[in-house]
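Board notes (copied after class):
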Amino acid sequence: MQNVIKKVQPLRDQYIRSLAESDNKTQKAKQIADDLFALDLTVYSKDFSFCSSLYNAFAKSVLDENYSLHPEQLRIISQIEKKDASIISAPTSFGKTYCIFEYIAKHKPKNIVLVVPTLALVDEYRRKILKKYQSVFIDYKKYSSIDLDKEYDFDRPNVFILTHDRIVHESSFTRIEKIDFLVIDEVYKLETDIDNDRVLVLNMAYYHMAKKAKKYVLLAPFIGGIANIEHLENKPVFFRSDYSPVVNEIIENTILNEADRSLECKRILDNDIKDEKTLIYFPTVIGMYQYITSIIAKEDIVDYLGTDIEYFINWAKDEIHDEWCLITAMERGYLIHNGQIPVGTRMFQLNEYEKGGLYNRMLCTSTLLEGVNTTAKNIIITKPSRSPERNKHEFSAFDFYNLVGRTGRLNEHYIGTAYYLKGPNDQTFNKADAKRTIKFELVDSSLDMDIQRGLIDEHPEVLEFLKKLGITLDEYKTNIGIRLRFSTVLDLFDSYLKYKKELIEQLDRYLENDQLGRFDMVNVFYIICEGAQQSRLLSSIITGLLHKSQWPKIKKVVNETKKHIPTVDINELISHTIRLKNSYIEHTYYAKVSIIKFFMQRDKTMNEEYVEKVDDKILQPIEFQYFLHVKHKKMLLDLGIYDRDIKTIIDIIGDDFDDGSELRNRLIANKSKFRKKNISYISQFIINSL
């Protein structure tokens, strides 16, 4: 059967090309309607032939009466209906997510959990549920975070949209008692990677949730299979389809040296795809910003950007910084998207990109490509590699074709083109190598999974460490858990012992004078966590962000740091500040300092006052500024509301809303009051887009 499918898809591609090349696509579709229908391209044959018209009438979507499901989508939905556990692999343009919502619309499972890897995908799913498919979910309570103090009613319909991290780090799985339908997206990320702490988190999210689910579906782009699938919970059935209603082409642009990458990228944009919808992929944020400062900054500023853009840029200059690369790009007709950008700003960028007009070019990293649904006719792959710290993980054909697959859009861009800037040391990627069999860490030989399952008798290094700390395995799992791999915890403990003397010296200083600034303590903990490289710079930024004035402007932190460390590049400084604020402090730094605090509690040479001072100077300020234990404020932050506006908004709408629908309704009902309170432009944009 698979051989037949492999032969059919190239034939489909030929017909899709003929549509793309036709001046009158409707007339062309009518002429070849029977062939399109025979190839399952019913999205194009529509009612242009008797058979197709009859098919589309019976394949009408419950979710959207103006859409008929193509045959491969019907097969997937049939599989979900028949099987309690499924793994579904299909190309990006297939419409996998649509199948999930179609199943929900048809069968209305009571308690739904949708697990996605990024907040960007949480937002995309949430918008579909709250707006696009509102009628389907009208009876559901909607949650994008879990309150550990709340009792949820699982006898009524609920839908939870969560990231893997929150399920595990916040122990959300303990509060979700019943799951009728579980979906985990982008599951290729569960593949074993012992150097990546986060992969363990993803596997544990699956491990805990699949146990409770009556029915679950795992989604992925094209993968060839799952090794040891029989060892997974409920033994899921693997379903793979190569069906694609768009054609993806690759054009290799060979360059002679690294210095030509940026110039060749600009040439393609200026000459080959001047006004077309294009993503420009960079493997690192630094590479993206270098392109902006070296190439885009030299282009002319657009005469008139529009009122909304002007409002946004004025806000960004005041709040972030006048020299922020994003502003430089936007003033010249480019958008940017990466994981360091504040959530609300990322949503604004995506919104402007989808609107089109001036902004048809978006610079991005892999963050945008992790399942977020964007419209792109082209993608320029400027360099096929990961960030420097991950060079040991080869950029594979799977990664490459995942990028290529982000081009093309049903009924809009029949052919999507990837321009690959291939340097002398870059490899050629073959599509046959892109479909790989992956092995989840859950079924692999993994020390960390053994720890979580309690199977440590054959791991003497674990037993020795527990003995050294004087704790049981349960105490390890409670206080350290799965935030970090065991090897990372060992490194952290060794670093704690190495810098213990310096730590005690700093703590004694604070006990003698409580009015001391927080920098020295932040710095010694940063060195323990990450090492001494750039510790002065990054600790200065962290100290500024945890300022007692509450939620200082990024611009203020940048300018103050620049005064103390004048040699630092301004773009590097802005980038570090945004990254530390939006991800590192809340997640990595907080987690590691918490574990160091646990080491201190187990250390008989550390007195209780030391531990209290760590809470007072570092952990509690982070908890306060990131709303770690205040779920109603965290819900606003997750929406993209800017942190400095949250208190004002809560004062107006109250803090007793129960779920996402109620929060949305209150925000919409109070729009005029927010304008009078002069909340930031970005928060107004988020509220207006609800």
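Comment from the instructor: The longest strand covers residues 247-254. The radius of gyration is 26 Å.
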